[in-house]
C-alpha cells in the first residue's frame, strides 16, 4: 500500500502538498536539479523534512509527483472545428511540450520514480487518453470519423515519445502531421 493513497484530499494535506510542490518548482527554476534536496524543499515550503519523507518517501518520488501534477492538462484540446486539425494541433503541442528541456526532465522524473512508477506513468497516460477522448467525442458529435483512441496512442503518441526518449531529434511538426495522416487520412 502506498502512503499517498491514504492522504485525505483538502485541508492541511492539500495545503502541504501545494506548498511543497511550489517549493520544488521554485527551487528547480533557480538551481541545478542535482543541488535540490529535501531539506532545502522543506525549508522553502515551511514544513519539516520528516513531513516530506512521510508523504513522498524520497526526493525522486516527490519530483515524480510534481511532474505528474504539472503534466496534467489544464484545459481541453483546442476545438478547431475539425477532428483532423484538432488532433494535429494537439499532437504538435504535445510533441513540443514533451521534447522541451522541462518536458524531458518531467518525463525522466516520472519514469525514475521507484515505488509508484506504474501509478505515475499511468496517470500521465490517463491524461493523454482523456485529451484524445475529448477530440474523439467532438468528432463523433460532428459526425466525423475518428480512430480508436488506442490506435492514436499506438501510432501518434508512441512514436513521438520514442523519439523524445531515444532519439536526439524529436519529431518535428511535419513528422507529427504525417503520423496523424496515417491514422486520420484526408478524404
Number of strands: 0
CATH architecture of the largest domain: Orthogonal Bundle
CATH topology label of the largest domain = Tetracycline Repressor, domain 2
Strand fraction: under 5%
CATH superfamily of the largest domain: Tetracycline Repressor, domain 2
Form type = elongated
Biggest beta sheet summary: none
Please give the domain count. Answer: 2
State the helix count. Answer: 9
DSSP helix fraction:
over 70%
The Cα radius of gyration reads: 19 Å
CATH class of the largest domain: Mainly Alpha
Distance between the termini: 50 Å
**What oligomeric assembly is this protein in?**
single chain
Question: Class by helix and strand content?
Answer: mainly alpha
- Write down the secondary-structure element order: HHHHHHHHH
What is the averaged pLDDT score?
88
Unreliable parts: 1-8
Organism: Pararhizobium polonicum
Protein name: TetR family transcriptional regulator
GO molecular function: DNA-binding transcription factor activity; transcription cis-regulatory region binding
Keywords: DNA-binding, Transcription, Transcription regulation
Amino acid at each position: 500500500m502506498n502512503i499517498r493513497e491514504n492522504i485525505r484530499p483538502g485541508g492541511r494535506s492539500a495545503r502541504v502538498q501545494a506548498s511543497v510542490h511550489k517549493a520544488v518548482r521554485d527551487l528547480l527554476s533557480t538551481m541545478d536539479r542535482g543541488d535540490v534536496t529535501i531539506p532545502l524543499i522543506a525549508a522553502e515550503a515551511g514544513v519539516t523534512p520528516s513531513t516530506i519523507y512521510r508523504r513522498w518517501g524520497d526526493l525522486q518520488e516527490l519530483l515524480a509527483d510534481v511532474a505528474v501534477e504539472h503534466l496534467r492538462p489544464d484545459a481541453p484540446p483546442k476545438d478547431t472545428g475539425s477532428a483532423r486539425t484538432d488532433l494535429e494541433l494537439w499532437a504538435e503541442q504535445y510533441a513540443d511540450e514533451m521534447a522541451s528541456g522541462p518536458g524531458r526532465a518531467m518525463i525522466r522524473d516520472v519514469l525514475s520514480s521507484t515505488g509508484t512508477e506504474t501509478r505515475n506513468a499511468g496517470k500521465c497516460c490517463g491524461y493523454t487518453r482523456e485529451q484524445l477522448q475529448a477530440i474523439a467525442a467532438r468528432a463523433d458529435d460532428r459526425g466525423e470519423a475518428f480512430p480508436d483512441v488506442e490506435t492514436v496512442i499506438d501510432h501518434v503518441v508512441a512514436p513521438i515519445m520514442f523519439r523524445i526518449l531515444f532519439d536526439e531529434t524529436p519529431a518535428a511538426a511535419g513528422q507529427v502531421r504525417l503520423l496523424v495522416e496515417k491514422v486520420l487520412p484526408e478524404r
